[in-house]
Design goal:
With about 190 residues, the chain is mainly alpha-helical. The chain has one domain (about 10-160). About 50% of the residues lie in helices and about 5% in strands.
C-alpha cells in the first residue's frame, strides 16, 4: 500500500500551522505524540496504510520520530517547503487535531505512555523502536473493544475520522454523494 504523505515533515508542518492558527505554540513533546497518534489511527482507519514514512522510537517520556526530532532541534527549518496534502489527509489530520489537540503535552504523554506498544518499548529502554505492526494491532483492538462496549455509539477511530458535514445555501446539514452520471445508451438509427 502506498504511504499517504511523502514526508513526515508535511504532517509536522500541518500540525504546527494548525496550532499557530489556533494561537498555540506546539511543544516538541506534544508534536511527537500527535505524530504517533496520527500514524496509529490512520493505519486503523485505512486498513493498515501508513500515513507517513516514519519510525517511532522511545525517549525518556514517550514516542518520538528521530528524523523529525533531529530536523527540528533548532526550530522549523526555513528552507524546507511542505508538499500539498490530499483532501483525505487534511480531513484526517483535522480530526486528530480536534480529538487530541486540546491536550497538554503532559496529558498526551501520560495517555500515550499507557498504550501497550509504547509501554512495552519503553520497558526495554530508550531508543527502542515501536513496531508499526504492534501499533496497528493495538489500536485496531482498542477501537473494536470500544465499539463492543458501547453498541450504536461512535468508536474511537470514528471520533477522529468524522464524515464531512456539508450545508445547503440555507445552512441546513445535508447528506451528499459523489455525482455519478447515468450511463447513456446510444441507439443507431437504421
Amino acid at each position: 500500500m502506498p504511504i499517504a504523505v511523502k514526508s513526515s515533515l508535511d504532517v509536522v508542518f500541518w500540525l504546527t500551522d494548525q496550532a499557530l492558527n489556533d494561537r498555540e505554540y506546539i511543544q516538541p513533546q506534544k508534536l511527537h505524540r500527535l505524530l504517533y497518534l496520527s500514524q496509529a489511527y490512520f493505519a486503523v482507519a485505512y486498513n493498515g496504510r501508513k500515513l507517513m514514512p516514519a519510525t517511532f522510537v522511545t525517549d525518556a517520556f514517550g514516542p518520538v520520530e528521530p528524523t523529525v526530532f533531529h530536523t527540528l532541534a533548532y526550530g522549523r527549518p526555513l528552507m524546507i517547503e511542505g508538499n500539498p496534502l490530499s483532501d483525505q489527509v487534511n480531513h484526517f489530520l483535522g480530526g486528530i487535531w480536534r480529538r487530541f489537540g486540546q491536550y497538554s503535552p503532559d496529558q498526551l504523554t501520560k495517555k500515550v505512555a499507557e498504550h501497550a506498544p509504547v509501554a512495552m518499548a519503553m520497558a526495554k529502554g530508550i531508543n527502542e523502536e515501536i513496531p508499526f505492526a504492534e501499533m496497528v494491532a493495538y489500536y485496531t483492538q482498542e477501537a473494536a473493544a470500544r465499539s463492543a462496549k458501547t453498541p450504536g455509539k461512535v468508536d474511537h477511530v470514528d471520533s477522529v475520522v468524522k464524515p464531512r458535514v456539508l450545508r445547503s445555501q440555507t445552512g441546513k446539514a445535508v447528506a451528499v454523494a459523489a455525482w455519478k452520471p447515468k450511463a447513456v445508451t446510444v441507439k443507431k438509427d437504421e
